[in-house]
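ligand=adenosine-5'-diphosphate
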Amino acid sequence: MFISFEGIDGSGKSTQARLLAEALRAEGRDVLATREPGGSPGAEEIRRLVLEGDPERWSAETEILLFTAARRDHLERTIRPALAAGRIVISDRFADSTRMYQGLTRGDLRATVDALHAMMIGIEPDLTFLIDIDPVEGLGRALARKGHEERFEDFGIGMQLRMRVGFLALAAEFPARFRVVNGARPPEVVAAEVASLARAALA
Ligand code: ADP
Ligand code: TYD
């Protein structure tokens, strides 16, 4: 079982991915929690290249290559071995993030993202949680963290608004694997809904 969490910056994906991993482990399940960009040593090195620095540092096309390179390494070294060992893999972001962030923020590159994905990655999660939130609230939460990985937050609120609409459209495009969850509630309330949806999918 391969589960991903998606959503705009600050929606609460990382919090929910961690809480779901804890809940499933408490039931005795073997869970690997991972994240993108990153999740393997090589991909974590690429993470620094894409998340730090000036928003104009890379074109959208170059980013597609960098994020896909990171994902391929993550897939080879972390995700595939864990799935082969029968573990549940929970990833904080996966290919849907590239479909949105690189595919629609600076022109329509969705077909390019999908073509490279088909060639180099080729798998989708069994279950994807879209943590949905008002971008004003999400960006406020994300910027309150004050880290160094703010390249995408620095694109501003207009982009986050487009991303939210894009993610909801993506969920409608792939209804079998997507579950849309309202993230504007206390973390433990969101987590209870996520855990019950995950248990239903695992059963
Ligand atoms: P993401 O991974 O989507 O960027 P995080 O889980 O890192 O989101 O959460 C962003 C910030 O918002 C963190 O400081 C976190 O503690 C806080 N946060 C997460 N979930 C909630 C929630 N349901 N309500 C309020 N604050 C939250
Ligand atoms: P993440 O660490 O999940 O950031 P946040 O907690 O703010 O949501 O992801 C870092 C950033 O990388 C985020 O702004 C989205 C971006 N990203 C892409 O642009 N393309 C991708 O394929 C992935 C996986 C992430």
